[in-house]
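Input chain follows. Return structure tokens only.
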Amino acid sequence: MQFSYTTQTLALAALCQSIRLVQQIARGDSTDASELAIALQSVAIQNAEEPIDIYGGKLEQLSQGYHILLSQLGDNPQKDLELTRYAMAVLVLERRMSKNPQALQAVGKRIERLNQQLQHFQITDETIIASIADIYVEHISPLGNRIQIAGKPAELKQSTVQNKIRALLLCAIRAAVLWRQAGGRRYHFILQRKTLLQEAKTVLQQLAQA
């Protein structure tokens, strides 16, 4: 994949959107069903013709993520530090996975099995969500420090909630893979912040005019 700030920004928007869903689920808040489905589906798509095809082929599917990214990169002093902490932890895990051939191979095989399951179940079926969560637990989580998720204890004790959170963390990892493939590096958040910010603004302006 060629170096692209546009694709980097798309990937970061997808990452932010997945993490916001993690926050909402952990707190017991309502979530957007289509956002959840788009995030989960991205895990199953390994070879897309265009980056946006990973997320349903439409930029509006990531509108929430672009808004979050704009807020996080902009001059707004009220940034979501929790979201930033989760995002940085995800980027670290993805980097470690990318340097671990065994983990990459294992994840690839599990995604092949996931696609077989999707011939019989919807992406938001609890069976599929549990399978995606299991990929994260077995092959991603052991690569680094466990991401401590804040939320309501009563919610976090539920196995269905735990599965959704872990599945969405894998969705965030998927977005981080795309970000790195497009040339994304952590120093871009400092040295190329204005470029990424302008990319996010441009997309949101396009969506507002559509």
